[in-house]
Amino acid sequence: MSWSEIALVVLAAVAVLVWVSWVWASRLDRLHRKVAASRIALDAQLVRRASAAADLATSGLLDPASSVLVADAAYAVVDDAGPVTEPEQALEMDGLGVQRERVESALSATLRSAFDDAEVVEALRTTPPGDSLVANLGAGWYRAQLARRFHNEAVAQAQRARRHWLVRLLHLAGRAPVPQTVELDDLMPAGLGAPAQP
Questions:
Q1: Alpha-carbon dihedral of residues 70, 153, 42, 143, nearest 10 degrees?
Q2: Distance between terminal CA atoms of the chain?
Q3: Upper half-sphere CA count for residue 98 (Cβ side, 13 Å)
Q4: C-alpha atoms less than 13 angstroms from C-alpha of 131 in its C-beta half-sphere
Q5: What are the respective helix, strand and coil percentages of the chain, to the nearest 5?
Q6: pLDDT tens by residue, 50-66
Q7: For 118-128, how does the pLDDT look when each residue is reduced to its tens digit (9 = 90+)?
Q8: How far is CA 70 from the centre of its chain?
Q9: What's the confidence (pLDDT) of residue 85?
């Protein structure tokens, strides 16, 4: 084999390695963007659920104790979520954070205790404003559950891609943090149920 043939083989091998690296880096970048987008969607759905809970709590349809408890838990979520002031905040890969997951779980537990009786939910649904408020809460909760599942699946895909030997060998993830799943209690009360599909 001559030097020119060896150089050609080496050049072809380097070109293939560069192409494969580019493909994996592009895939990893797409997965990180998918995680960021799903986190933003999850955050929006959780805030929507908290807003629906606050609307129901302030409607005067719940008993006073339940109204106060639900309102406190809902406002804790809204206060903790706060406005996103920096674009980098929306693209963080650390899930929602321990404190936010804690207040979201507390809201779920409070709502379950307030709506654990199917008769209470049915009584709320018989009044005109109660029907739409309960439907909004159920729809918001259902969408939040779906958004969390989609987010956690996106995180799992990104984590699997980051574990690939080529990604680790060539350090293709760069300085990007490892995406984290969102673990919170979002079990819906049996009486509330998923919204009816049209």
A1: -60
A2: 71
A3: 0
A4: 4
A5: 70, 0, 30
A6: 999 999 999 988 889 99
A7: 888 888 888 88
A8: 22
A9: 44
The ranges assigned to domains in the chain are 3-169
Residue with tokens 């293939």: 16
C-alpha–C-alpha distance, residues 122 and 134, integer Å: 9
- The rounded distance, in Å, linking the Cα atoms of 10 and 73 is 63
- Amino acid (one-letter) located at 56: L
* Residue appearing with tokens 């699997």: 160
pTM for the model stands at 0.83
Cβ atoms < 10 Å from Cβ of 114? 23
Q: Which residues contact 107 (CB under 8 A, 6 or more apart)?
A: 49, 50, 53, 73, 74, 76, 77
Comparing CA positions, the residue from 108, 121, 44 lying closest to residue 74 is 108
Structure-block tokens of residue 118: 């199917």
pLDDT value at 163 more than 50: yes
In which band, very low, low, confident or very high, does the pLDDT at 197 lie, cut at 50, 70 and 90?
Answer: very low
Tokens coding 112: 């379950």
- Cβ pair 155, 180 in contact under 8 A: yes
* One-letter amino acid for residue 8 of the chain: L
Beta strands in 83-130 (DSSP E): none
Residue 197 to residue 5: CA distance in whole angstroms: 66
